[in-house]
Predict the 3D structure of the following.
Amino acid sequence: MSPTTPLPSQNVVLTVTENKKQMIALICEDILTDIVWQTQHTQTHKLVITGQDDVPHEIFCAKTSLRSDMITMHEEADNIIVQQAITVAFLGVTKVIVISDDTDVFILLLHYYLQQKITVQIIMESPIRNRTVIDIGSTVLQHKTIIPDLLAAHALSGCDTTASCFGIGKGKVVKALRQGHSLSCLGDEKSDPTDVI
């Protein structure tokens, strides 16, 4: 490329899976080798980095170690983020901060917080400054009657791994749950098809 050739836009670069993988690998490598950055940012907080390796790295006080207890073969970042947040919540910490503004991450955090009876404070923050910060525990407490059906509702109304059904959006599904309707038959192979419908 000549010096006058502009770089392709971010959207063009990130729509290609291989480009995303390369970018993630570069970012992980840079963080794992930048001792100055590590010294400045990991004195009071632990940073867990998951890249291409199945075993994540943890950086704390500028020291890097492998986190074999967090090994994962999963490809979906949303699931990995939640898996790691839940693992950390059971390690005696007082607070877990998840940096994400992804709806799938939010729904999974709510589900597992209730299911696993987590008591540690889990906060979900957007990577974009000045956006809402969500206290997962408070949200679970406020909406615990609908959370058992929330995974099915989220899948039914469209998520990363399923398309939405025509005319069934998030608002409509949540409204149905608040009215006392249950989606517990969805995904249950033993349920009668009439009950599912």
User: Anything to note?
Assistant: Residues 74-144 form one domain. The CA atoms of residues 85 and 96 lie 7 Å apart. The chain is about 40% helix and 10% strand.
